[in-house]
Amino acid sequence: MTLQLYYWPGLPGRGEFVRLALEQAGAPYVDLVRDTPKGMAALMEIMEDEGATPPFAPPFLKDGKHIIGQTAAILLHLGDTLNLTPRDPFKRIWVHQMQLTIVDAVAEVHNVHHPIAVSAYYEDQKPEARRAAKAFRDERIPKFLGWFERILGNDERGGKWLAGRSVSYADLSLFHLVEGLRYAFPKAMKRHQPELPRVMALADAVRDLPNIAAYLKSPRRLAFNEDGIFRHYPELDG
Ligand SMILES: N[C@@H](CCC(=O)N[C@@H](CS)C(=O)NCC(=O)O)C(=O)O
C-alpha cells in the first residue's frame, strides 16, 4: 500500500528523516503536499480533525487508515515495516533511543535561531540567538556528536552501523543531522570534525548507499534553506 507523508512544502525539515527511511527501503510513498494539488488541504484537514489520535504537528504518516505523528514514532513504525531496525527487542529500543536523541538535537538546532519564541521572526530575536548559538556550537554539537562517536567506537556493536550489521533508520537520521549541521555551522563543524572521524565515516557510508545516492541526486531531495530547521546565518557560526 502506498504510504502518505504529510509535511510542509519547500523545506527538508523534519520530514527529511522520514523521507530518507522511505527512500532507503524503496517504499512506495507520496509526499502528499508536494506531489498532489490538494495535499495542503488534506494536511490541514487532518490537523483540525477531532479524531481520537490527532498528530500534534507535521511530519505525520498515513499508513492505511492509521495516522502516526512525531518523527521518532513514525520511524519506529517504519523501522519494523520496512526492515530498518534490528529484530531483537532491546536493540529495537536502542535504535529508538538514538533517534530520540537526534530529535532532541534537532529541537536544539531550531531553538538556536528561535530562542525566545517559535512564533516570532528570527530578526526579532537576533541577540538572544547569538548567545544561544555560541553555547550550541561550543558545547552541544560536540556533546551530541561525541556521544555518537563513542557508540561507533565500541566494537561490541558487531558491524559498521550504529546498531550492528544492518543499516537502521538511526544511521540515516545521523547522516541528515551531520549534513544539516554542516550547512548551518560550516566553520564550527570544521573545528569539530577532527574529533569525530567515525561519525564522519558513517555519514559518508550513508551517502554512498545506492538508494540514498540516487535519492540525493533526484529532484525529490530538497536543498537546505533559511525556512527550515538547519539555517545558515553566518553571524550564528562564530
Ligand atoms: N517532536 C516533533 C516536532 C514536530 C514539529 O515541531 N514540527 C514542526 C515542523 S518541523 C511544526 O510544524 N511545528 C508546529 C508547532 O510546533 O506548533 C517531531 O519530531 O516530529
SS-based class:
alpha+beta
- Domain count: the total is 2
- The top-level CATH class of the largest domain is Mainly Alpha
* Side-by-side strand order of the widest sheet: 2-1-3-4
Rg is 18 Å
In the CATH hierarchy, what is the architecture of the largest domain at level 2?
A: Up-down Bundle
Low-confidence stretches: none
What percentage of the residues does DSSP assign to strands (E)?
A: 5-15%
The residue fraction in helices comes out at 40-55%
**Given the structure, what is the number of helices?**
10
The chain-level mean pLDDT equals: 97
Overall spatial form: globular
| Helix and strand sequence | EHEHHEEHHHHHHH
CATH topology of the largest domain: Glutathione S-transferase Yfyf (Class Pi), Chain A, domain 2
Q: How many strand segments?
A: 4
Q: Which ions, cofactors or small ligands are bound in this entry? A: glutathione
**Biggest sheet, open or closed, and with what strands and sense?**
4 strands, mixed
Please, could you describe this protein's structure?
The structure is a single chain. With 238 residues, this protein is an alpha+beta fold. It is 55% helix and 6% strand. The protein folds into two domains: 3-81, 3-Layer(aba) Sandwich (Glutaredoxin), CATH 3.40.30; 89-209, Glutathione S-transferase Yfyf (Class Pi), Chain A, domain 2. The protein has a four-stranded mixed beta sheet, with helices on both faces. Helix 4 (71-81) packs antiparallel against helix 5, helix 5 runs antiparallel to helix 6 and helix 7 (169-184) packs across helix 8. Bound molecules: glutathione.
